Amino acid sequence: MTTSANAITAFNPAFWAREMQGVFQRDNVAIALANTELRDQLPSGTIIHKPYRGTLVAQTYVKGTDISTFNDLSSTDEYLTVDTTKVVPFYVDELDRMENKWDAAAVFAQDAQKVLNNLLDQAVLAKYSDARTSITSQDLGGSGTGSATVNAANIANLFAVAARKLQDADVPGNDLCAIIGPRLLETLRVSVAGRETGFGDTVGDNGKISNRFGFGLYFSNNIPFSALVTYGGTTNNPTNNPTDGDYIKIGDIKFTFKSTLTTDPATVAGEIKIESTAAATFVNLAACINSATVSAAAYTQISTANRRKLIKGSITATNSAPTVTIAGYGDVPVQEYDSAGTLGAATNIAVTSNAQYPLFMKRGAIDLVVPKSPNVEFRMAEVRLGRFVYPWMNYGVYTFDQMKDAMTYGNIDTSSWV
């Protein structure tokens, strides 16, 4: 039988879908939860003042005697400053606009607006640290003031303690909000499974789930987190290096310490060069986390998909020997492994203070002024055929003194999140 040697694949047509692939973005809650009323009181300028007054003290009056002591009235100025401008610029050539199937400027402008909304969300939720109280291990049946373990058996207590701390500060009980991430939402659903709850199964507009435990429950992937990586062994000696093959994971992103980097960096992403000292090695780790720039001598770049995760979560590393602080937004545990994949067994590395900070507050406790909402401007290029596209926003966020009592946050242990 004679075999065919036909080569007619050039006849095969190519087809393009009606729509290009989308990009998953995070739901935003900032506008729904922050107080935005001050925007109307700032017609121009960048600063709006809102002072607070001192506390009055009562005394006992004795009939027929003069009052000799009077309260000294005092006031303290506070102000919100509109001091942050973010821009996501890009350029689209006119020839591309003519030749492309899709309007690149339009679709990338939409993506840019979502990026800006995400940053606005993170700026508001980062104000959790302004709260005067927090929920720690001892509040949930543990000991000490460190991070608390939350599970299906005690998650209701988390909300009860949050309510109590707000009540202790005389915060009115109406319009309270709790902003939680996927892990706590999962734990809550497991806790109430099989019981009549009126608990929502879906996330609505502005992240609203339902009302529970006296709080309006909101979902966000922008809950702040932080972790402290201490290196150098039990003596914290910055000369004591990790072992070849040990690795750290930020969420599911792997950073592997190697004595010699793989020759072809495209085959193994996220390798960190072990230097002569641990201090120098962890400089490389921080650089790899923070930068999309390739450094062939210090590390191999992580994948595009993983870089996107770090950017979405605004995840950064700050190196200060003998520690690296890793912080950002989302349900992101930081963990260390030895080369065999055993959790917590890496040489001369320890991850501590692995925590996430869900926020419980009275709606409007955080003030947000946005003179320029996320918007897009198109400007024609002067010496080329095309348009520069400037998606940008301008805002200020602040927690005034009184409202620091109207917030509390959970210090939640994330070390077991895998």
What brief labels describe this structure?
2 domains, 23 strands, alpha+beta, 418 residues, 19% helix, 6-stranded mixed beta sheet, single chain
Summarize this, please?
With 418 residues, the protein is α+β, with helices and mostly antiparallel strands.
Content-based structural category: alpha+beta
Beta-strand percentage range:
25-35%
Order of helices and strands: HEEEEEEHHEHEHEEEEEEHHEEEEEEEEE
Q: Over all CA atoms, what is the radius of gyration? A: 27 Å
For the biggest β-sheet, the strand order reads 7-22-19-8-10-9
Tally of alpha and pi helices: 7
Low-confidence stretches: none
3D structure, described in words:
This protein is an alpha+beta fold. It folds into 2 domains: 22-57 and 73-176 and 357-418; 224-353, no CATH class. It has 7 helices and 23 strands. The protein has helices at residues 30-33, 94-99, 104-125, 155-168, 182-192, 278-290, 304-312, and strands spanning 47-49, 52-53, 75-76, 79-81, 84-87, 90-93, 133-135, 176-180, 208-212, 215-219, 224-231, 247-250, 253-258, 271-273, 316-320, 323-329, 334-337, 349-356, 359-362, 367-380, 386-398, 407-410, 412-413. A 6-stranded mixed sheet has the order 7-22-19-8-10-9. The longest helix is centred in the N-terminal third of the chain and has 22 residues, at 104-125. It is globular and about 125 Å long.
Write the layout of secondary structure elements.
Blueprint: H1 30-33, E1 47-49, E2 52-53, E3 75-76, E4 79-81, E5 84-87, E6 90-93, H2 94-99, H3 104-125, E7 133-135, H4 155-168, E8 176-180, H5 182-192, E9 208-212, E10 215-219, E11 224-231, E12 247-250, E13 253-258, E14 271-273, H6 278-290, H7 304-312, E15 316-320, E16 323-329, E17 334-337, E18 349-356, E19 359-362, E20 367-380, E21 386-398, E22 407-410, E23 412-413
Parallel strand pairs: 7-22, 8-10, 13-14
Antiparallel strand pairs: 1-4, 2-3, 5-21, 6-21, 8-19, 9-10, 11-16, 11-18, 12-13, 12-17, 15-16, 18-23, 19-22, 20-21
